[in-house]
Design a protein that fits this description.
Rossmann fold; alpha/beta; 2 domains; about 45% helix; about 15% strand; 15 strands
Length: about 375
Amino acid sequence: MSDSPGRMATVLQVLPALGAGGGVERGTVEIARAITEAGGRALVASSGGPLVHDLTRIGADHIELPMHTKSPTGIWSNIGKLEQLIREQNVDIVHARSRAPAWSAYYASKRTKARFLTTFHGTYSSGNMLKRQYNSVMTRGQKMIAISRFIAGHARRIYGVPGSKIRIIHRGVDLDKFDPHKVSAERVINLANSWRLTDGLPVVMLPGRLTRWKGQTVFIEAIASLKRRDIRCLLVGGDQGRSEYRSELEALVNRHDLNEVVRIVDHCDDMSAAYMQSDIVVSASTDPEAFGRVMIEGQAMGRTVIASNHGGAQESIIDGKTGFLAEPGDSEALAKAIHDALSMNENQRNTLVEAAQKNARDNFSLQRMSEKTLEVYDELLQLGPMR
């Protein structure tokens, strides 16, 4: 990561904020760590948040700027702020991770001749020409990272991005954190007690914030159709202000008389222990996941993973070998997959778990994601500045 002899590259990542919960935010910190460990200099511009502490702890620098703004005047104002930052800090590469700040970063990079890179994290809403124009900034980097083959195909199909510009880098999972051997029994017991779980009963968990497209209603309907009282099912995730949807889920649980079977618990700060508490991990998203770290985390932790058969899940799960895929939005198909997973004998389960953990280690590690991202940075340095 050297821009010239004797000087290591400086990389500025730009995103709206550094909240604690999102994959974009976590990925920003993870790549900042990779930059510093490679001898480069890592800067992050955002409006701040809980993960600023994590950044400074690894030797990266955070610059607080109003990058969260979506107003045209705010975006325009941020161009000048970023231009000044790029010049003062001698930034070589600007890496934009979200649309509004990407517009500011794009024009600031053009003015300063810094290299410009984007990461395309999701499909975004593209129902009209104005929306597509707004989204198109994520395709304007000299190179564009797509977090899955699904996203790469979307960018080619909707925005006409040439394949030569796209670099597919799957999100990585910290295999030190998501290691079943590093989760103490005490952590698992404490979580079981707080969630009032009954000893000896299989646990089926759907992690994810309470929002309709995550498929919680499909999951509840699937559990209802199983007609089993000898399992416990958990919806793990905060409602983030969606109290009406949470009330709808509670009413659905009550309507199916599943109050002893299905429980809605809030956001969990110890997901490694939550996975260890579970026998089956479900992702029931009705819309395609751009990637879906839950599916990789579950495999890494040696759990049986079931996901909707679309989007990034088709890349992270080998159906029947490292997990199971079910038709999206189909509660009966999901119920069958859960039934099949619960019905596996010990040898079948061990075979699947071993293959799943190998899949996570070989293809979706944090180290692999970091190394591939640094390779793109090196590629940009060879390309020359933004024009």
